[in-house]
Amino acid sequence: MDEFMKKNLDRWNETSAIHAKSDEYDLESFMKGRNSLHEIELNELTDVKGKTLLHLQCQFGMDTLSWARMGASRVVGIDFSNVAIDLANSINEELKLPAEFICSNIYDLPDVLEEEFDIVFTSYGVLVWLPDLDKWAKIVARYVKKGGTFFIAEFHPFMWIFDDENKSELVYRYPYFQGKEPLHFTSEYTYTDQDETIKNVETYEWQHTFGDIITALINEGLTIKSVKEYPYTLFPQFPFVEEVEKGIWKFRDDKYNVPMIYSIKATKE
Ligand SMILES: C[S@@+](CC[C@H](N)C(=O)[O-])C[C@H]1O[C@@H](n2cnc3c(N)ncnc32)[C@H](O)[C@@H]1O
Questions:
Q1: In the chain, how many domains are there?
Q2: Is a pLDDT exceeding 80 seen at residue 155?
Q3: Is residue 180 part of a domain?
Q4: How far apart are CA 131 and CA 133, in angstroms?
Q5: What range defines the domain where residue 121 resides?
Q6: Angle 54-55-58 (CA atoms, 0-180°, nearest 5)?
Q7: 195 C-alpha to center of ligand 1: Å?
Q8: DSSP 133-148
Q9: Band of the pLDDT at 195, cuts 50, 70, 90?
Q10: I want to staple 204 with a disulfide (CB 3.0 to 4.6 A). Which of 142, 182, 226, 256 is the partner?
Q11: Is residue 7 domain-resident?
């Protein structure tokens, strides 16, 4: 693992524990039966009953386990954070769903996981951590069974170009066409919590263009079935968005009508 990824791993190990205690993730209501999945994926992956599902970058597995609660016959969640995977395992010790959690860098997954799946799923805040999109698409395609489906719902790369500290308007700050070098960020806080300060302040993130994401999947032989874009997001990405319903954030007064999330559904034929 290179230095960039090691820094990101330290950060995720520290923040996963904070997220698990946060109101945003609301683990307490999840344990009582709440489904943590969002309308976007629920509307697109309607038929999981009896299917096997691989969840890439699952953090502590609430979404993974939600698919199992909805009837998936076996779910496997993978993440490189050992803290997140330990949490996922302890959650499932109580819930006893047909799930397995594996601690692995996504790029090393073929060393530890053999089988193929009916569905490969990944969502919200995953691709910025990955330096090599072509290698990622290879992993995705490797795990989709013939006749199976890949689904991603993710924050739109268009939105990462704007200054998230400007208090009143969208102002260009970061390149859309970033190239291979990561952007270096430092922050003492994680997205769920402005009270608890973090020791591992550094992250390295990669901007991947919408075109690159779609092309990487096509190059691995997947057939794109749908590409959708949505004018809202799931967190207060800018100071001037408002929560229009629980967990759904839009620009105040619809000031900007822009794509904030996208989803892609693809199959292996
Ligand atoms: C924002 S979370 C996404 C998960 C899900 N949307 C959630 O909120 O729980 C990103 C996850 O990617 C994981 N991750 C980052 N880089 C990774 C890598 N190279 N291999 C595997 N997991 C990675 C992190 O540990 C983290 O759990």
A1: 1
A2: yes
A3: no
A4: 7
A5: 3-156+205-232+260-267
A6: 150
A7: 22
A8: HHHHHHHHHHHEEEEE
A9: confident
A10: 182
A11: yes
Report which protein residue has its CA nearest ligand 1's atom 6: 124
Q: Which two tokens stand for residue 88?
A: 């996922």
Rg of the chain taking only CA atoms, in angstroms: 18
Tens of pLDDT, residue by residue over 23-36, are 889 999 999 999 99
The pLDDT value given to residue 69:
98
Report whether residue 4 contacts ligand 1, using a CB cutoff of 6 Å: no
Binding site membership of 124 for ligand 1 (Cβ less than 6 Å)? yes
Q: The domain that contains 61 carries what CATH number?
A: 3.40.50.150
Is residue 26 one of the residues assigned to a domain? Answer: yes
Cα-to-centroid distance, 106 and ligand 1 (Å)? 9
Is the pLDDT at 184 greater than 90, yes or no?
yes
Q: Is the pLDDT of residue 193 over 80?
A: no
Ligand 1 center to 21 CA (angstroms): 17
Angstrom distance (rounded) from CA 217 to CA 195? 39
123: Cβ below 6 Å to ligand 1?
Answer: yes
Residue 252: CB atoms within 10 Å: 14
127 inside domain: yes
- Kindly state if the Cβ of 81 falls inside 6 Å of ligand 1: yes
Between β-strands 144-155 and 117-123, what pairing exists: parallel, antiparallel or unpaired?
parallel
Mutation test of ligand 1: which of 22, 56, 79, 203 has the most ligand atoms closer than 8 Å to its C-beta?
A: 79
Task: Record the tokens describing residue 107, joined without a space.
Answer: 């790029």
pLDDT of 150 > 80? The answer is yes
Report the C-alpha gap between 137 and 142 in whole angstroms: 8
Question: 101: Cβ below 6 Å to ligand 1?
Answer: no
Question: Whose alpha carbon is nearest atom 15 of ligand 1?
Answer: 129
